Amino acid sequence: MLRFVCDVPEESECDAVVYAADPAMVAAGSVPPAPGTGAEEEKEIFAGMGPEDIRIVYASGDLYCTYMIHTPCPLWQGGEAGEREALKALYGRVLQLAADHDCRSLALPLISAGVCGFPEDAALDIAVEAVEGFQCEREMEVELLLPEQESYDRACARLPRYAGD
Questions:
Q1: How far apart are CA 69 and CA 12, in angstroms?
Q2: Cα distance between residue 35 and residue 11, in whole Å
Q3: How far is 161 from 42, CA to CA, in rounded Å?
Q4: Is the whole model's pTM more than 0.90, yes or no?
């Protein structure tokens, strides 16, 4: 099951929560660390990460989830550099990693939208396509986190069958 949720990762009660960021921005300290993670710990997690790397760690702090999945997000370069394919493949790897760790639920942000430059509609379409494809083979509850009400409302207007709140 896929549903859109107007929420932030630290409030999710899913088994795993995904944190995606540009490793260069993490190293520079220009993006906040993942919930439950300090800035220096986040830099260590992202250090040396390539574009296809994913790291899963046990969640810490006051988080409800068991795992935090850390991944670099593909940067938008105008749409002609294979970004869409890279983002779809990333979603597939993240979903598979969660399944490999016996997660029954996963909270996903709209990876690459926002500071990584992906147009929100394109990122939404890719996320939905990737999750639907994965769910044809494996059962997992997936919450697509849209932290701003405006983004949530737009997504629900475009794809009302996934409205979750």
A1: 13
A2: 9
A3: 35
A4: no
User: How confident is the model at residue 135, as a pLDDT?
Assistant: 92
Cβ(95)–Cβ(134) below 8 Å: yes
Instruction: Tell me if residue 50 falls in helix, strand or coil.
Output: coil
Q: What is the mean pLDDT of each run of 10 residues along the chain (165 residues)?
A: 88 87 74 76 78 77 83 84 91 94 94 83 94 93 92 95 84
Strand partners, 106: 16, 142
State the pLDDT at residue 165: 59
**Do 101 and 65 form a contact (C-beta atoms < 8 A)?**
no
Answer positive or negative: Cα dihedral of 24, 25, 29, 32: negative
φ/ψ (deg, to 5) at 4: -85, 140
Pairing of β 16-21 and β 67-72: parallel
Render the burial of 27-47: b for 16+ CB within 10 Å, e for the rest: eeeebebbbbbeeeebbebbe
Helix pair 120-135, 149-158: axis angle to 10 deg: 60
User: Distance (Å, rounded) from C-alpha 110 to C-alpha 43?
Assistant: 21
All structural domains of the chain, each given as residue ranges with its CATH number in brackets, are 2-162 (3.40.220.10)
User: Rounded to whole angstroms, how far apart are CA atoms 123 and 113?
Assistant: 6
